[in-house]
Amino acid sequence: IFYNIRIQLERRVQMAFLDIDLTDQVSGKHELWDIQSTVNLSALVYRLKDLETEQGRHGYGVDVGLKCLFLQFLYDLSDRQMEKELRFNIAYKWFCGFTSLEQTPDHSFFGRFRERVGTKRVGKIVKSIVNKAKEKHLIRSIFHFADATAIVTKNTTWAERDKAIKEGEDALNNTNVKKYSADPQARFGCKGNSKFCFGYKGHVGIDMGSGLIESAAVTPATVSDQAGFKSICPREGQMVFGDKAYCLKPAQLAMAIRGAVSGAILKHNMIAKNKDLDRWRSSVRAPFESVFSKFEKRARYRGHANVQFQFFMDAIVHNVKRLVSINSPPLFQGA
Q1: Distance CA 274, CA 267 (A)
Q2: Long-range pairs, 74-82, Cβ under 8 A, ≥24
Q3: What are residue 78's phi and psi, to 5 degrees?
Q4: Quick check: pTM over 0.85?
């Protein structure tokens, strides 16, 4: 018994001496190196300072948790996939601050960390990145792009419909769906006259000079684009470029209240319609309409707050990648 214990101790000592920092293996050879050089996520941990306690069996800490969360949304990984990648992927280990042989978290760590962080704190991280980009004069707040996209909770609701009819309902609709859906806060919505979905709607406001997302909000799918615009309307006298939904009264009123100037495309039956002007506005908007292409189209979680958490994380990933692509100077320098 004592011999086996001695052998195990010797092996651990040998492994300790063999353990190495992974910086040289990643330096300049992986996109995570560029991300870390541009936006040091460790500098944002102060937004989570009230959570700075031992997290997990080995006390991984908030810094590790935040970077793991970012990687999950950057590469669209489940908790178990994240556990595997963090264990065997050198770049992931380095990014999260592990050496080659250090113990990494198991899948349960990520879910517990998300639950502790919550939506409000993630929203503060989005705001911190945006504010720092403004300090660096990357966001100039002159022209603003606004748009919305569906976030689908469930593709079909036949089972819920059958259950509702069985219990005496005439149909499944927004007045009774909360009683039968696994996500009682999701709602039916429609884009145009024929594109129906069940879930939520994500609204974004983008600075057109930098391509960075300034604001992001989630509403139930019943909320129209123009009604949801008040959650993302800029306050600094910017010109807002939007599609025809944003020429309607709710959006126009939000702009008037906050001093923004409307650059929305007008409907064909409006007196002030200028086809040449709207054609130009469409061409200006076009490069930004692809922003949603990388966003998650399905709700990862249930509940309005959790879907807002998801949308905030998608916005963080977009902004970090955008900062790298525009060769931004390091944010949070010296952190």
Answers
A1: 10
A2: 74/317, 74/320, 74/321, 76/296, 79/107, 79/108, 79/110, 79/111, 80/107, 82/107, 82/110
A3: -75, 175
A4: yes
